[in-house]
Amino acid sequence: MRGYVERFDIIIGYTAYLTNEGYLFWQLANQFSRSSRRELESASDQPNIPCYYLAGHSIELSLKCFLHSTGYSLDELKSWDFGHNLEALLEASKNEGIGQHVNLSFHDELNIERLNSHYLEKELEYLEPQIYTLPEIGNIVGVAESLVSSLAEHAAKHSDSDDT
Asked: Which one, 8, 27, 156, 163, has least CB within 10 Å?
């Protein structure tokens, strides 16, 4: 089995051939979500920009996981229409029925929208002196965790039939 894995695992020194893009989105979303929680728990009282980035990336990957399971191709998910746009990904996911799997409140959606204004423009990666209007960090980490946990079974179910 050297050099081949059916589902992506981080393997040092081996080539991992990805056979399941949808499940990979979920696995990475889970890793980013767990990392955001660890960063939140180790943070001081200072604003923790990396934690926002980790949670935002988890949200992005969770939504892409869901959309991939409904038939969106990897190229569509990487397109300018979606890319790193959390609001566009959320809207498309709602149209595809994510509400049957995840209970996102109005406030959760508002937090995603507030984060997106900085996440989309890469402001969490390339900081400039300005005023950042970000959601409360615990709330956005909670949204990331909720998406990952709620989509776990869905991602696993669709990974069996995914032959990308």
From this structure: 163
Are 90 and 112 contacting, i.e. CB atoms less than 8 angstroms apart? Answer: yes
User: Token pair of 144, please?
Assistant: 């990331």
- Pick from 159, 142, 126: nearest CA to 58: 142
CA–CA distance from 66 to each of 6, 34, 70, 94, 149 (Å)?
Answer: 19, 19, 7, 10, 12
**CA neighbor of 62 nearest in space, from 142, 6, 145:** 145
- Please provide the distance, in angstroms rounded to a whole number, between the alpha carbons at the two ends of the chain: 19
Rg of the chain in Å (alpha carbons): 16
Q: Which residues contact 70 (CB under 8 A, 6 or more apart)?
A: 96, 97
Residue 83 three-state SS: coil
* C-alpha distance from residue 37 to each of 47, 108, 112, 139, 160 (Å): 14, 17, 17, 11, 29
47-94: per-residue pLDDT in tens? 789 999 999 999 999 999 999 999 999 999 999 899 999 999 999 999
